[in-house]
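**Archive record**
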Amino acid sequence: MTAPGPSADDDRLPPARFAYDKHTWKEIAHLLANLPVAILGFTYVFAVLLVSGILTLTVVGIPLLAASLLGARLLGKLERRRARALLGVRVEEPSPLPLRKSGGLVPRLWMALKDPVGWRTLLYDVIRLPWGIVTFVTTVTSLFVLWPVLPFIARGLANADRAMVRGLLSPSDELERRIAELESDRGVVVDTAAADLRRIERDLHDGAQARLVNLAMGLGLAKEKLLEGQADEHVAAMVEEAHGEVKLALQELRDLARGIHPAVLTDRGLDAALSSVASRCTVPVKVTADLTERPAAAIEGIAYFTVSELLQNVSKHSGARSASVEVWRSADRLLIQVRDDGRGGARLDGGTGMRGLADRLGAVDGLFVVDSPPGGPTTVTAELPWRDRTEPPGQG
């Protein structure tokens, strides 16, 4: 009697069989296909290493090798599909390389060159050529000479194939995946910090600095007139104008300082800081912060600026009549939810800074989800890792 075999979705080894059934024929088909598939894979590897090795003396070699490793990922995907269909081995697909988040060309090339999935696939294709020859010759010989025991031979060879697929074509372990993500996120953090520094420099140069230069020139002219004894109404007007410039410059400096890190956040925490942001929104905003303690300063700052930018979008783009902000802690996560009853249609690629927010949260192992159907309402949910505050808040 023939023992039942596994379904294609079963990752366990099927039991021994005493007759030919569909699973045996699938294993035989896989073993016979090993040789042509192995020849194609080995040819790809040989061409990649030969051509890339020769061209490493030029600027073309490194990009070609990086592209070849990405191509090896595709070969691995095809082999996983073949193993799934014929051997019943279900191996999860590796996480894609986060190349879009890696900055310029050089970081992307470096990430592709360090890809362990691509290198293991190349190793798999090298090993498969001699193994493909062995399995093809053994299976063909057994078909004509060892027919009664062919199911057992096919089972043994197929089990070796299963082990190779699991060992070399399985996803990178968690550490490798996290290292790749953290390297990518580090690039995002560096780019974001550089953009923030450029914004601060631009605001200082075009705002407060320009006003202070005008102020210095105005006071210099007023001083000259006073020294010349021309204390008339013209001088008084110049002094009055300079006084106005001082007040505007101070306000711009306060706004700039608030954009870097608001004093109210440092002194009083998220509840007060978010209420302050909400008061400047052009639509009524209800703020609810259910926090019994404060998170780490860095997490608190990211939460503040996330809500601040989302409320700016509500003011500028949503057409909403009301909005709400909720902040609470759930286990080891800080959760933020911003809702508005506007027109909806917000997207991560919509040009309203959503993508930048998602990248910033992703850089600290956070999440950012936008639910904004056309016609509204819009709900944006953000999650941040909760980290305990290790130092007392600064005093203003």
